Amino acid sequence: MKANNNTAYFILLALIASVLVSCANIGRPSGGPRDETPPVYVSSNPEPNQLNFSGSKITINFNEYIQLKDQTTKVVVSPAQKNMPIIRANGKSVSVELRDTLLPNTTYCIDFADAIQDNNESNPLNDFAFAFSTGDSIDSLQVSGIMLRASDLEPMQGIIVGIHENLNDSAFSSIPLTRIARTNDYGQFTIRNMKPGSYHLFGLKDMDGNYTFSRNEDMAFIDEIIIPSSHQRETTDTVFKFNGEIDTIMPGVHTVFTPNDLLLCMFNEQYSSLYLKKTERPVDNKLHIKFSAPVDTLPDLRLLKPTATRPDWYRLERTPDNDSLFYWLTDSALIKSDSVLVEAHYLISDSLDNLVMTTDTINFFFRHKADKKKKADKDDSDNKGKNLLGKITSVGKPDKDGDTKPSEKPASMFDSIPTLSMKIEQNIDYGKPLPITFETPIDTIDLRAFHIFEKEPDDTLWQPSTRAKKLVPFDSVSNMKYHFIYPFDAGSMYRIEIDSLSIYDCYGRPNKPIKAELTVPSLEEYANLYMLVNVTDSAFVELLDSNDKVVLSATVKDGTAALENVRPGTYYARIILDTNGNGKWDTGNYALHRQPEEVYYFPNKILLRKNWDNEQTWNIYETAIDKQKPFDIKKNRSQADIKRLQKMKRDKKNSNEDEDDDEDPWNNTQQNNYTGNKYNDARNSLGGNNQRIRF
Fold this sequence. Notes:
The chain is mainly β. It has seven helices and 43 strands. The strands form 13 sheets. Strands 37, 38, 40, 41 and 42 form a five-stranded antiparallel β-sheet that branches. β22 and β23 form a beta hairpin. It starts with a helix and ends in a 10-residue tail after the last helix. The model is unreliable at 19-30, 381-416 and 659-691 (pLDDT under 50).
């Protein structure tokens, strides 16, 4: 019995000790799961959809403390307000004080977008809107859609979308939009509380805040008249148990508002009134004149002072559309002068946007630094009496025996004579011209002084070439950039030798003798991409890098765009339906009812490996237009997508997984209301025709 009592005693002590230890080790509280629930509407004054409202202040209450984010840019009131309402957050409520007089018998809608967020985790209350009426009834129709930038399918965020009851074309530029909304992070929009009728629909980047279109603003329009309507559709809601089994199936009725698939493509007409935008003299030998827009007629310059010593006192370097002009001064008297005064005759736009000739006096001023002049005078004094050829008369330093030896580097007449500067690219691709760039305008080039030698990689001797060659300007107006055209073979090595005194710039400076070697990669170093597209009209395909920049383009011929001899890597592609056949994307024009040329993106990345051919079949209408542009080259990403991507990267880092920054975490499908099924249903209803579906 005594042993049993001792055993029981020790067991009891052990239990007490374990309890004490567990009480001493206090665990760190986890804090619970992250709050991801947005604020919930509780009540308001007035009530939602209240009739005969005559006040000016609206208060909306929520179930938790809230904050407002970017309310001045996100919150819009319809009809559009001349004076921005005062919007405040106060604890668990939001107040809106309208400063415009309310119109009689009118339905008002306050669209908050995602400006209302909870105070702790910033969870947004998306697409929240509040409506009331000053009359006996409330308008309830709505239309919705999406706005993308026409040139690259970027979703347009925070852009005004509005309607006009006045169907005249001039209404867009003369009358404020009747009802407005603003696009969200995905470019989506919904214009609510519309009354039955016929409307024109517009998008507008309203720079001046007057809700009317000015010719320099980005805009979008739909040609067809919009007629809003609604209908009832039976729906089925399913409630599941915790184990995944179906609990309840409840039939219901849902109101569908149409049209709900409107596509607005935003563009800029690239119009600008013509005026003299800038004049400067960045260096002593160059004048710069910049216009606000392209111009067909070059200005006429007459030198007033100082007097030039030669009639051709400048060389003109210009852009192809003549909006930027550089006058290289060739007269030493002008270069040395602090002030160059000219009389300029040029075109500008008058108050009616007509081009008229004007005359202006322009003073191009440049201060020559005094210290430079002093240093130049000192150098001239030190060099007085020396041979102009400098190092040619220097035979070197005496050796230890007192004899002189020639310098290791042979003296050259070009060591003292100013020479022009030029650059020859040494990395070129097969089938591409060789760029040659000069720092000053060129007057003469003797192509006979250009000598080409070539050899195979395994050879040791250079062989002179007699094949045809030519040097052409980079564009129709260039005199500083040239393309050296020569049939360079893939996998071969070349040496270019240019004799001295064969090129002269506008200052009469000759070139030094030049040697440059280059190697053209073999064809095995390249990849070829062939895009088989369902396009019959004129079009071209552009190959894009990870920054959405064009690497290479190819015209579609017989349904195929051949992008050949491409460096290996990861690329993307888009196609432009080139309706006018000019080889570039063209913007739209509202006055002419001309939409911008259509652009489509290949929805997946393209991996090109060297010495491989990649063939892709591309139905440009198969993927919904707002889902085409791959996520990894999309710039206008939603805040929700950014947070989701950041979370994925954190999870990968924590789990020691390899990250792929270019991976589309949603398989190129954005989290929005425009589903691929809806797009395919729309196409099927048209018999599968190749048409751009709006949605």
